[in-house]
Amino acid sequence: FQARFVGGSVRDRLLGIVPKDFDIAADAKPDEVIALLTSHKIKTIPTGIDHGTVTAVMPTSQIEITTLREDVVSYGRHAQVKFGSDFKKDAKRRDFTMNAMYEDKNGKVYDYFSGKNHLKEKKIFFVGDPKVRIKEDYLRILRFFRFKSRFSLHADTNTLNAIAGLKDGLTSISQERKTKELEDLFVTPQA
Q: For the chain, how big is the Rg over CA atoms in Å?
């Protein structure tokens, strides 16, 4: 099977920050991940089997391993997914270019949407059309501002206009989720 680190751990490492946690994307299906980890006596938790996520319980932390996937239909925060084997297709469904990078066991970074350059330029971009990404999950609006503040990033007018036009979608998100994002935002440098 192919497996790569994905998201925040790749982003943070590129920024010179020690990652707090690690997520892995793999072409193995959830039952294959469980069988493989179990054969190595690693405890697993079927965290989100329907969406392809299995948690590996390691001695000092937990690592989420998620099967590569594509969104078939999106219902806000919940999507019907199809498992796949293509890292680029998996990257297309992610939120921001800086979170859509993968890193293999040899340290090679796979960057399908210029996330590395955007980080260097101190810019934040959604993967693809911001309106589409936001409609898939309105919580991404708050995540956008949290990351923008945390890493002192700049946004383009198109993205800010998309957010302004879709802000009412936040009413569909649970208060608990919004509160958590706001708490995380308020402790960032430019809150």
A: 17
Element (H, E) at 63: strand 62-67
Phi, psi of 87 (to 5 degrees): -65, -35
23-66 tens-digit pLDDT: 999 999 999 999 999 999 999 999 988 889 999 999 989 999 99
Terminal CA-CA length for the chain: 41
For 104-168, what is the HEC assignment? CCCCCEEECCCHHHHHHCCECCECCCHHHHHHHCCCHHHHHHHHHHHCCCECCHHHHHHHHHHHH
Within 8 A by CB and 6+ apart from 24, the residues are 3, 4, 5, 6, 63, 64, 65, 66
Q: Name residue 80's beta-bridge partners.
A: 73
- pLDDT, one tens digit per residue, over 132-185 is 999 999 999 999 999 999 999 999 999 999 999 999 999 999 999 999 999 999
CA distances from 159 to 16, 60, 125, 188 (A): 27, 39, 7, 21
Distance CA 77, CA 74 (A): 7
